[in-house]
């Protein structure tokens, strides 16, 4: 495990870059009209806390979010819903407000499901680009949601380049969950959707946490939850961002003092296997996170198996934050009250 104390804490590594929103009434208001929306549970993991020798571990369980099996249901679908609300002449017309519009995205699975679900509800088409490493099971799930699936490239980054090229060629709307110079607002809307999860967790925890563990790929979820945690609880919680050892985009950017693109083999934490961070997420996390850490492939596999034995089934991507706690390198004190996220269900769920 590689651990780095954030030297930029309280200041942004990218002072001129926008930072993720910390609160959003718009998310709650739109979700109130969605029949599939319900608050996801908070697990009081007593036995796991005992194993980790800490006071408590509460886990925000996103495995059943809106029937899509992942926190990502809150992101792209919300961004599409915002577009539909802006385009609709009246409430009755909202389900057809985006007729004729096509959304295109690259995905490691769950983001694509959210794009597809949102497009389907509001009359749009979804085209999702997948790299060769994404399991065919995810492609099948996307097609079941009505999306057109295109395989392109050996890595997520290559599939992202293909999606960008398709958007330019066909005039489609690119809906990424990452941000970069010249591409900000659509992904900011995706990140805004994730604030609903943070909003719920703040209301659910019996006592504010001392430590918050957040897994990250490009960093959108981690940035949104960290920003809301600072809004709710100030500087008190220690926020720890966890990445795969072979995809250390955020930690290496923090270490270098500038946004970095990293290299490495394919990770078993597939949804976190992103080699370039989101610019907005990096700007936000450099201000809000206290510690950046990476875990090995073995630590992720072993932690996921231990959690499954406790009845908490997910994937190495979904459990990465908890796996960091279980690996032991964080030196968590016995009085620690941990808040973590189970960000997706198991592969066969």
Structural class: alpha/beta
Helical content band:
40-55%
Show unreliable segments: none
Distance between the termini: 29 Å
Strand order of the largest sheet: 1-10-9-8-11-3-2
Radius of gyration, CA atoms, in whole angstroms: 19 Å
Structural shape: globular
Beta content: 15-25%
- Our count of helices gives 12
Number of strands: 11
Mean pLDDT, all residues: 92
Order of helices and strands: EHEHEHEHEHEHEHEHEHHEHHE
Largest sheet: 7 strands, mixed
Notes on the structure:
This protein has helices spanning 25-32, 46-52, 76-87, 110-121, 136-144, 156-170, 185-204, 220-233, 249-256, 279-288, 297-309, 316-327; strands at 2-5, 42-44, 56-61, 102-106, 125-130, 148-151, 173-174, 211-215, 238-244, 291-295, 337-342. With 349 residues, it is an alpha/beta fold. A seven-stranded mixed beta sheet has the order 1-10-9-8-11-3-2, with helices on both faces. It has a four-stranded parallel beta sheet with strand order 6-5-4-7, with helices on both faces. Helix 5 links the parallel strand 5 and strand 6. Helix 3 (76-87) packs parallel to helix 4. The radius of gyration is 19 Å and the shape is globular.
